[in-house]
Structure formats: structure tokens, C-alpha cells
Amino acid sequence: MFKSLFLTFFVFFRLILPAQNSPYQKKSMEVFNHMKSGHLSAINTMFDTTGLGKLVRGQSMQTIATALESHGKIKKMLRYEEDQEGCKTKTAQYIRFKNDTVVLYILFNEQMQIQQIHTGKAVEQPFYILKGYKGLAEVTDLSTSFVSRDGVKLGASISFSDTSKKLPVVILVHGSGPNDRDETMGPNKCFRDLAQGLSQKGFAVFRYDKRTFAHTYDMKPRSDSMTIYTETMNDAVDAVRHIKTYTFIDTTRVYLVGHSQGAMCAPKIAELEPRLKAIVMMAGPTRSIVDIIPEQIEYLAGLDDSISTAEQMNITAVKWMADKIKHPDAKAATMPLMGANLYYWKSFMDYNQVATAQSLKLPILIMNGERDYQVRMTEFDGWKQALKDHPNVSFKSYPELTHLFIEGSSKPGPADYDIPRHIPQAVIDDIADFLKLH
Q1: What residues are labeled active site?
Q2: Residues 254-300 pLDDT 10s
Q3: CATH number of the domain that 35 lies in?
Q4: 3-state secondary structure of 95
Q5: Is residue 418 situated within a structural domain?
């Protein structure tokens, strides 16, 4: 299960800039030159077309055609950036068209094939600037990988600051959706923040690409076999067991930090892997996600203080699908909710994270941002009520923080995630202090 480590290290605290004429920059420039000359058919041959790739290729080619039609003739490229998104590489070209300046984003897989192209508004900030936290001056980030019990290879990174002694280790488990190891959301990378901050506090931190991100096209994330166990829990347990192969890890001090769906799954992961010493649950819901999704859809529709006819139709449809899924006599042919089928959602409904947490003896820290519109404070209050008699459980909420545990500046909503921010030092300190107690 353990693959050879890449012996290339890099130090945090600096903006990750591409090497001059990196291979991905060259590929990205090919796309730009083909667009400028009008040879779109040449771009068409550069895509990963396995599985769903053909569909995404069509959408990406339409994006290019629309950009050329809407913004006019290409004048020149103003700026280029690239950054790692887990095992993949994302590039950004700031292109001056006749009528506007647009950013062209290209996502490449490890074989340097294009997986997706989309456009965005030109912004001043780069992808991500690595932020220093209080602690040691340098943090090393080592690229590695592990293989799950069912043979799926997952790219990973392990961060640490000092291997002169054996280190306690923290495993990070992501939320719902196809997340990379950094839990990238726009210009924000919450797990990279946690990895850096906790490494400066004396921990090793292990994070990995979610299987639905790493193998988007060559697996069937919506197949009849996908459950909350195969999507999240089993890989987390396998990551815990894999981490014990590192000689600088103190295998008696292994901890888990889960975010959102990862937090919801944390109690079961701890039950399945009893060698965990403590868990931290960041924005974990007490209720089933099937119940929460319709509420989120309705909240987002009302952000502008009005709900259009089309939005109301979508709200009604989502509520109808959720009710159908929850019905005891629901059939496999039930219309999928958010692209996933009945079998997948039933695995969520059959899992009781509150009861599982109540049965645990290990220390638990439950955290929530008070500006979180996805997992609201009612969920946090539910945890406090359910675990009020458990002396091993601690609670912490943050008035200014969102679902990503970054600060927000407007009415809570997706716009908060578009502004580059970092997890505050206080959150890093609270997690580190809790884990050091145990």
C-alpha cells in the first residue's frame, strides 16, 4: 500500500509561482495560441476523454467558443499563474480580449491532459498566498500517496516541521463533493492552512485527495455501489493505517480532524479505527444531509430577498426528491438528488452520527462558525444538547467565521468564499491546544 516518497520538499510562507516555462505553462500556452489563431480543433485533442471526460470536453469547448464570441478578438496575455490542486494542476491566463479582460482557467490531470476549462472575472489576487502562523519558521510539505483497500490510488501530502523526534499526527478528512487534499474553494485552501498552522505547532499533518476528485472520470461516483463508507469513511480509516508506516510518526498519538461531511463521519471513523486518540469535528451536522440540502437551496434562493418563479420551482423539486428518498418504500429508480442516487443517500440516512458520538469514550472537540449558512448554529446547539453529559466533549464557536472557518464580510453566502482569506490563528491554537491535552 505504501508507494515510494518523492524526495522533493518545499517550504511554506511564500507564494507558489510556476517554474519558468513549466510543462503546464507550455501546455497552457498551446491552448492560448490555438485560441488566438482560431484552431479550436487542436484544443479538442488535448482533453482527457475517459468516462465523463467527453461530456466535460464539450462543455469546455463551448466555454472557449462563447468567450471568443462575447469578448472579441484576443489581444494578448497579461499574466500567468499555476497552482497545485491535489494531484492536478490548475493554470490561470489573464487574457486581454478586444472588449474585456478575462481569466481562462485550465485544469490538467497528472498526464497533462485537460480535464476542464472555464472562465472568470479578472481579479488582482493570485490563486493562494501561503500564510505564516505563530510557531516554527519553516514547514516541509512532502508529496506522497497511498492505496485504499479497494485498490484506488490517492495522492497525498504530509506536512511537518521537525523530525528530530517522533511527531503526533493529524489526519484531515474533507467535506462533501470532489475535494482535493487542500479543500480548495476558490482562492481559499482551508486544509493547506490547517496543515501549515498545525505543523508549526509540532504536529505532522496528513491530507489526501478525495477519490471523487482524484478519479473524477475513471470511476463511477454515482454508481449503485457508492455509499458514505466507500466515499469517505473507508479511505479515512485507510489513511490512518497508512500513516503508521512513516518512521517519524508517533503511532500512539494519531488524531483526526474532519470538516463538514468529514466531521459528520468522524465518530464512525473513530469507531472503525479505535487507535485514534481524539477527534475534532469542524462544522459537522447532527441531522441527515438529505434534510439539510433543501434548506440550503431555499436559503441561497432568498439571498437577494426575493425568490423567482424558477427558483421556487427548483426548491419544490429538491424538496420533492428529498421526500421521495426518505420514504420507506422508495425505489432505486427514484430521481437522484444532487446527482446521487437512492442507494447513496440511504447510507447517510442509515448512519446516526449523534448516537455514534454518544458511544465514544475518546475526547471530542466540536467547532462551528456562527456565520455558517451550510451547517448552522442549530446543528452546533444540537451537538451540545446531545453530548451535554459527556465530560470528554468540548465545544467552541466563532462569531465571525463561515463554513470554511474564514472570516466573512457580508450576508452569509457563497460570496464569502470568493475573497482570499485564511483560517485565523485562534482556530489553529484551539485545535492544537485541545489535541496536546490528549
Answers
A1: 260, 372, 403
A2: 999 999 999 999 999 999 999 999 999 999 999 998 899 999 999 99
A3: 3.10.450.50
A4: strand
A5: yes
